[in-house]
Design a protein that fits this description.
Structural class: mainly beta
Radius of gyration: 19 Å
Strand content: over 45%
Region (Disordered): 1-33
Keywords: Cell cycle, Cell division, Cytoplasm, Mitosis, Nucleus, Repeat, Transport, WD repeat
Helix content: under 10%
Pfam families: WD40
Largest sheet: 4 strands, antiparallel
Strand order of the largest sheet: 1-30-29-28
Biased composition (Gly residues): 1-11
Family: Belongs to the WD repeat rae1 family.
Length: 362
């Protein structure tokens, strides 16, 4: 069922849908959207010619759409978990999707047969899942609120390796041979994945408040060299694993606005960060309902969006950096009293390649 489709070329343009009040940036709307807040977005890997987008949400479901070159989205299928879905990732060959949920399980969804089977388990909700494609092995890495990080050969019911974490896993990223895991109490651990995965070093957090998201970035040789870390306090840290100069590490403020009373700022959580796969520039999305594009090397903002009606909960770039996807949903930052079940959830797609080009000198 997934074998047909247009190739993911560079042309991506047509008349978007959705009104300007809910879609102030006039981007393409993914239809139909999830029924509850969107927790995670991932595009298919470069191993397949089409662009597929998967989204996990609080309605316990993972949905898949094909993104045509016109910008039109074609819903393909859906799988359900027994609890809210907290993370999703693709197998590197593009045939399978892994789904991590509050039901303490991770399932593997085989797209061709449209069947899913359990491939991992924890003693608490599973917060992160990442496919590790190593030089001498492949496996699934899962991080949980049970304070463990597990590595799975998905053909076996028992993990290949279990590593204890100092606290609950809150966010993680993998770019072989490196993994970074952030835990509750602002813990930061860098792992090296070559051979047998093992802890490389622990890092003192440069941020004073709870971590919300992180993403690994590469150097000009396309080697993973550091990571961006976002917090609930409207701040992002750029951290190099082995900085040549201490000043290479820095933090910057984002997703803040001037409040109604003079001298005070409204501060919002940074819900997700993602690096552009070609330019190496950065996108952040926040509880303030905006996304921003940044050039970390020039330390400058490239673009800010207009404000959406709800928070932006997560984002992703497709494999060649032509499409930026972002989800507009309630993120519970203001608690139950501000939840409005009548407000629709949205996923939008933006043609973004030129907007994320690094700032040129001069």
């Amino acid at each position: 069922m997934f074998s047909q489709g247009l190739s993911g070329g560079s042309s991506f343009g047509a008349t978007p849908v959705a009104s300007t009040s809910t879609n102030p940036m006039k981007d393409f709307e993914v239809t139909p959207p999830p029924d509850d807040s969107v927790t995670c977005l991932q595009f298919s890997p470069p191993s397949i010619p089409q662009n597929f987008l998967i989204a996990g949400s609080w309605d316990n479901n993972v949905r898949c759409w094909e993104i045509e070159q016109s910008g039109k989205t074609v819903p393909k299928s859906m799988q359900s978990m027994q609890g809210p879905v907290l993370d999703v990732c693709w197998h590197d060959d593009g045939t399978k999707v892994f789904m991590a949920a509050c039901d303490k399980m991770v399932k593997c969804w085989d797209l061709a047969s449209n069947q899913s089977i359990q491939v991992a388990a924890h003693d608490a909700p599973v917060k992160t899942c990442h496919w590790v494609k190593g030089s001498n092995y492949s496996c699934l890495m899962t991080g949980s609120w049970d304070k463990t990080l597990k590595f799975w050969d998905t053909r076996s019911a028992t993990p290949m390796l279990t590593l204890n974490l100092p606290e609950r896993c809150y966010c993680a990223d993998v770019d072989y041979p490196m993994a970074v895991v952030s835990t509750a109490a602002r813990g930061l651990i860098i792992y090296q994945l070559e051979g047998t995965p093992q802890e490389f070093k622990r890092v003192d957090s440069p941020l004073k408040h709870q971590h919300r998201c992180l993403a690994i970035f590469k150097d000009k040789k396309k080697q993973p060299t550091g990571f961006a870390l976002g917090s609930v306090e409207g701040r992002v840290a750029i951290q190099y694993v082995n900085p040549q100069n201490p000043k290479e590490n820095f933090t910057f403020k984002c997703h803040r606005s001037n409040g109604a009373t003079g001298g005070f700022q409204d501060i919002y959580a940074v819900n997700d960060v993602a690096f552009h796969p070609v330019h190496g520039t950065l996108a952040t999305v926040g509880s303030d309902g905006t996304f921003s594009f940044w050039d970390k090397d020039a330390r400058t903002k490239l673009k800010s969006s207009d404000t959406m009606e709800q928070s932006i909960t997560c984002c992703a770039f497709n494999h060649n950096g032509q499409i930026f996807a972002y989800a507009v949903s309630y993120d519970w930052a203001k608690g139950r009293d501000f939840y409005n079940p009548l407000k629709k959830n949205y996923i939008f797609l933006r043609s973004c390649f030129d907007e994320l080009k690094p700032r040129t000198a001069g």
